[in-house]
Amino acid sequence: MSPNTVKAYHRDLRAFTAFLGGYYGIDAWSWEGVDRLAMRGFLAHLARGGVGKRTMARTLSGVRSFYRWMHRNEMVENNPARAVGAPKLEKYLPGYLDRAQIDLLFQMAEMRAMEGAFTDVRNLAILELFYSTGMRLSELQGLSRGDLDLVSQQVKVRGKGRKERIIPVGDHAVTALRNYESRRDDLAARVVGGRVERSAYFLARTGRRMGVRMVQKVVSGFLEQIDEDAGLSVHSLRHTFATHLLDAGADLRAVQELLGHASISTTQIYTHTSVERLKQVYQKAHPRA
Questions:
Q1: How many angstroms separate the CA atoms of 52 and 182, rounded?
Q2: Helices marked H in 114-233 — which ranges?
Q3: Backbone φ/ψ region at 25: left (φ over 0), alpha (ψ -120 to 50), beta
Q4: Does the active-site annotation cover 10?
Q5: Topology annotation, domain 99-282
Q6: 153-170 pLDDT, tens per residue?
Q7: Is 3-83 assigned to CATH 1.25.10?
Q8: What per-residue confidence (pLDDT) applies to 104?
Q9: Does the active-site annotation cover 24?
Q10: Is 157 helix (H, G, I), strand (E, B) or coil?
Q11: Which of 160, 165, 172, 277 is catalytic?
Q12: pTM (two decimals)
């Protein structure tokens, strides 16, 4: 599992342990003694605290896994978490940008990059790479110089669970990345003391690898100018990548591979997005809709 997943499960299990201390009394409970009512009480406790259903489902999954581990190691006889159903998750359509919004996004970024400032050229390269590959925020932030091959136009990405995949990189992104690389070399020559993180691909002006929050801030700043009230995020570019590919007739399995989804069911949400848009077009265009 990815480090973020491990941290989340650890945090969830600590919350579960803290709840059980109050539910049973600090010294009066054991893992074997936890029952279905306690599990339901824990989920109710999370709901009262404003925890979303998706987080509750993940927390329950972590507790189930923990009990399976204890059962394999003969520490408990039963798994009380199995008797409790996960909350039903709301279905939602991911936010994405339409073609006109994407054109506007890159027009803004290109106009800034034409001035030649390091950060503007870098930011255009970041946007182009996100839209060209559909990679996750953590994947882009963790890129190293050896991961990108602009001659063969492909990038090696380390996804969830440290699984690697190869994604093609489009012509527009390659051009933006080449321009950025020349500015990055200029920056490395100017940084005082040569303190440049040379293995990192995307650098801050200090010469160090950009952090996740910095990448988020860069992309969010552009997206807010596109539509401040749409709630668009960095992940919206990943949704946009998948939606536009499927709209153009791309194979669902191929999109699954490009996104690095373990299950085809995760990728299928984007087919719903396409169908919803078709419905909107139909309602507007058909005389008797």
A1: 45
A2: 118-133, 137-141, 171-190, 212-226
A3: left
A4: no
A5: hpI Integrase; Chain A (1.10.443)
A6: 999 998 877 789 999 999
A7: no
A8: 95
A9: no
A10: strand
A11: 160
A12: 0.71
